[in-house]
Specification:
This protein has 228 residues and is of the alpha/beta class. Helices cover 39% and strands 23% of the residues. A hairpin with a 2-residue loop joins strand 6 and strand 7. The protein is elongated. GO terms for molecular function: phosphorelay response regulator activity; transcription cis-regulatory region binding. One of its GO terms (cellular component) is protein-DNA complex. Keywords: DNA-binding, Phosphoprotein, Transcription, Transcription regulation, Two-component regulatory system.
């Protein structure tokens, strides 16, 4: 996923960019509000999430958030030391999707990034007016957590569904193992790798589509959308 980090402190930005890169994000760093707005042209410029610091040198972060929301629907997470409820409400009213207070736990920040990104379903996977993902003969109903292949319901465990839904919302995109573990199991990679492999194998078997989830050696997994 491409992520726009709006942060005027180069040391903070460098440290956070390194962490995000290790979790599979391609980070673009903007040092001012104007630089951020230019980076989002045209129509969000392919960014999945914007991490917006409010203490910017040229414009107030709230003002930048309002301008971003007028230009694109790209999810915005405000990152700030302003912890009072009034500031949070103001940010959310301006169109922010989430609000993280400094100092924050990196794991929590990553979870929030994945959460807001998950709400944005790509056009090629969604049908207007339908809360389901359609990938060839596979239908994934998000509200009811039901999966069917050629109209036949496939019984999945909770984690199997979460894993499939995560991969299916961005077909073709490689998800790092660490990222999947963080998002689906809400824990670190250590000791959970074998569990992920077992769940991938189970999904391939239950859906009767061995090629649906591709292993990217040394990196992670991606969903290969089957032909309709």
């Amino acid at each position: 996923m491409r992520l726009l980090l709006v942060e005027d402190d180069n040391h903070v930005a460098a440290a956070l960019s390194a962490v995000l890169a290790r979790h599979g994000f391609a980070v673009t760093h903007a040092r001012s509000g104007e630089e951020a707005l230019q980076a989002l042209v045209p129509e969000g410029n392919g960014f999945g999430v914007v991490l917006l610091d409010l203490g910017l040198p040229d414009q107030d972060g709230y003002e930048v958030c309002g301008k971003i929301r007028k230009r694109t629907s790209t999810p915005v997470i405000m990152v700030t030391a302003r912890a009072d409820v009034r500031s949070r409400i103001h940010g959310l009213n301006l169109g922010a999707d989430d609000y993280v207070v400094k100092p924050y736990d990196t794991g929590e920040l990553l979870a929030r990034i994945h959460a807001v990104a998950r709400r944005t379903v790509p056009d090629d996977a969604a049908t207007p007016g339908d809360d389901a993902l359609h990938l060839g003969s596979v239908r994934i109903e998000l509200p009811t957590r039901q999966v069917s292949v050629d109209g036949s319901v496939v019984q999945l465990t909770r984690k199997e569904f979460d894993l499939l839904a995560l991969l299916a919302q961005r077909p073709g995109v490689v998800f790092r193992r660490e990222q999947i573990i963080s998002e689906v199991w809400r824990t670190s990679w250590e000791g959970t790798g074998r569990t992920l492999e077992v769940h991938v194998a189970s999904l391939r078997s239950k859906l009767r589509m061995p090629a649906l989830i591709e292993t990217v050696r040394g990196v992670g997994y991606r969903l290969v959308a089957p032909a309709a």
